[in-house]
Design goal:
Elements (H helix, E strand, L loop, with lengths): L5 H4 L1 H20 L7 H16 L4 H26 L5 H13 L2 H16 L3 H7 L13 H48 L6 H4 L1 H10 L1 H13 L8 H11 L8 H12 L6 E4 L2 E4 L11 H41 L1
Helix pairs in contact: 2-5, 2-8, 2-14, 3-8, 4-8, 5-8, 6-7, 6-8, 6-14, 8-10, 8-11, 8-13, 8-14, 11-12, 11-13, 11-14, 12-13
């Protein structure tokens, strides 16, 4: 059987790295696809399936997740098989998929619009925009509550919409990246503690907890390292990350929010309302309540964390490719 040449031995990982960086650049320059968004299309299909098979049952919910996620992962395998990994089509497909699943530019745009509305005192506009970022009841929030909700959403969504897709794309390629976006989308759709989804959405919520475990911690650690960009101290931020990260009811959101609270020097957490359901969460951080200007600082930190994650993913893939080439050369020698 013909052995792979040294020139192409590391092509799979190098092509994946190029594709991820291409997707990051496209997201930064073009934001989300406007006409036909693949994630929205997946959500529509998943919603139709939910209506067809819904029952107040964990088993039905688990079956629903298996079908939806398997479809996304299967699509990733098909695309990888068709386009290959050592031709230009492979990296371009990876880049297009990364552009579709990454949400860093949209997150920054929505949060910046919130900062402008809050800074001008236009609470009606801010309440109208909040559902673009999170599921809290905007009518129950005053200006301070809207600011806190925005900062917390930026922190959590930096992991969900940026770091996690990059990490899964680096580790598992197209199937992993598309599979993660499917899992996270299902969690947003049905992973609620409401009467309808407490049982049906259980599997989606738990799978998202598992899939986001490592990305959330990487997000927190990158926020620690990059805290000086927003006037923070890495040492203080790490102390708050370690002390408060586990206090949040979510095993992942707390790590991100605690790190952002430490870096920004603010206090997050408190009472949240979700469609009439009230949650009382522990406070994270030692600082003052966040102000509208802190939303822009949170966006700056989020962008830096996303770029750092992209750099780490590409560097890790390049190193893996170099090791593969060296191993092939060693075997031939």
């Amino acid at each position: 059987m013909r052995k792979p040449s040294r020139a192409f031995a590391g092509g799979r990982t190098e092509g994946r790295a190029f594709g991820l960086l291409l997707g990051v650049a496209a997201d930064a320059l073009l934001a989300d696809p406007r006409r036909v968004h693949p994630v929205a299309g997946f959500g529509s299909a998943a919603g139709a399936l939910e209506r067809a098979i819904y029952a107040d049952s964990r088993f039905r919910g688990a079956a629903y997740v298996v079908v939806c996620v398997s479809g996304a992962v299967g699509l990733g395998f098909v695309l990888r098989s068709v386009t290959g990994s050592r031709t230009l089509a492979g990296p371009l497909t990876m880049g297009t998929a990364a552009w579709a699943v990454l949400g860093g530019a949209s997150l920054a745009r929505e949060a910046t619009a919130m900062a402008a509305a809050l800074g001008s005192g236009d609470l009606s506009a801010a309440r109208a925009r909040l559902p673009h970022l999170c599921g809290r009841d905007p009518e129950a929030l005053d200006g301070a509550g809207l600011v806190r909700a925005t900062v917390e959403s930026v922190a959590e969504n930096t992991a969900d919409a940026v770091v996690a897709p990059l990490l899964w794309g680096a580790v598992a390629g197209l199937p992993g990246m598309l599979g993660y976006r499917a899992v996270n989308t299902l969690d947003a759709m049905v992973g609620h503690r409401s009467a309808r989804y407490a049982r049906f959405g259980w599997a989606a919520a738990r799978l998202d907890d598992v899939a986001t475990w490592a990305p959330a911690r990487l997000t927190g650690l990158l926020a620690v390292a990059l805290a000086p960009l927003v006037g923070g101290s890495p040492r203080r931020t790490y102390r708050i990350y370690r002390r408060d990260g586990a206090r949040h009811p979510s095993p992942n959101a707390g790590r991100c929010e605690a790190a952002f609270a430490g870096a920004l020097g603010v206090r997050l957490g408190g009472t949240n309302s979700y469609g009439g359901r009230v949650e009382h969460r522990p406070e994270l951080g030692n600082g003052r309540a966040p102000l509208p200007a802190d939303v822009r600082r949170a966006v700056r930190l989020s962008r830096a964390v996303g770029l750092a994650a992209a750099g780490l993913a590409a560097a890790g893939l390049a190193a893996a490719g170099a090791l593969t080439v060296a191993a092939v050369g060693g075997r031939r020698g």
